[in-house]
Amino acid sequence: MTLTWRWRAAGPLPRPAGDRGQVSVELLGITPLILAVLVVVWQFVVIGYGFVLAGNAADQAARAAAVGHDAGAAARADLPSAAWVSGASVAVGTDGDVVTARVSLRVPLLVPGLLSLPFTVTGDGGAAKETP
Fold first, then answer.
1. Are strands 89-95 and 98-108 parallel, antiparallel or unpaired?
2. C-alpha to C-alpha distances, 31 to 22, 41, 45, 94, 110, nearest whole angstrom
3. Three-state SS sequence of 78-128
4. Do residues 71 and 92 touch, judged by C-beta distance below 8 A?
5. Whole-prediction pTM value?
6. Residue 5: strand, helix, or coil
């Protein structure tokens, strides 16, 4: 028995009958892994966003304290939603002619307002003290 190879112009290659649906089964098997990776990436995005919010709120708190206003109110007004505000703590200090502020935020789990992770992110800010 001799085998001859011929080129086919178009169309799918013939497959054994037992391979039908194999790609669908493999996709179904890998889907949970893809979703898990997406959830982990999203959580890292939320953590990074928390660092950005904490740093910006600390800057606003330091600027407000430098001119004699309420630093805590300035920091909380700068946060985007009540979910971030509820876990915020603000500490203000002075170091000579510089007013420093540290804002700590609880990191939400996936979506702000539902659950929080057991750690906080902090942001530090500073501004020169202004005297009238």
1. antiparallel
2. 14, 15, 21, 53, 19
3. HCCCHHHHCCCEEEEEEECCEEEEEEEEEEECCCCCCCEEEEEEEEEEEEE
4. yes
5. 0.76
6. coil
Residue labelled with tokens 């600390």: 58
Contacts 24+ apart (CB under 8 A), 107-115: 107/46, 107/47, 107/50, 108/46, 108/50, 108/83, 108/84, 109/43, 110/39, 110/42, 110/43, 110/46, 112/46, 112/81, 112/83, 112/84, 113/81, 113/82, 113/83
Q: Can you tell me the distance from the alpha carbon of 109 to that of 118, in angstroms, rounded to the nearest whole number?
A: 10
State the Cα–Cα distance between residues 89 and 111, nearest whole angstrom.
20
pLDDT tens-digit readout, 28-38:
889 999 999 99
pLDDT tens sequence across 17-76? 666 777 888 888 899 999 999 999 999 999 999 999 999 999 999 999 999 899 889 998
Q: How far apart are CA 32 and CA 24, in angstroms?
A: 14
Q: At what angle do helices 71-78 and 22-66 cross, to 10 degrees?
A: 150
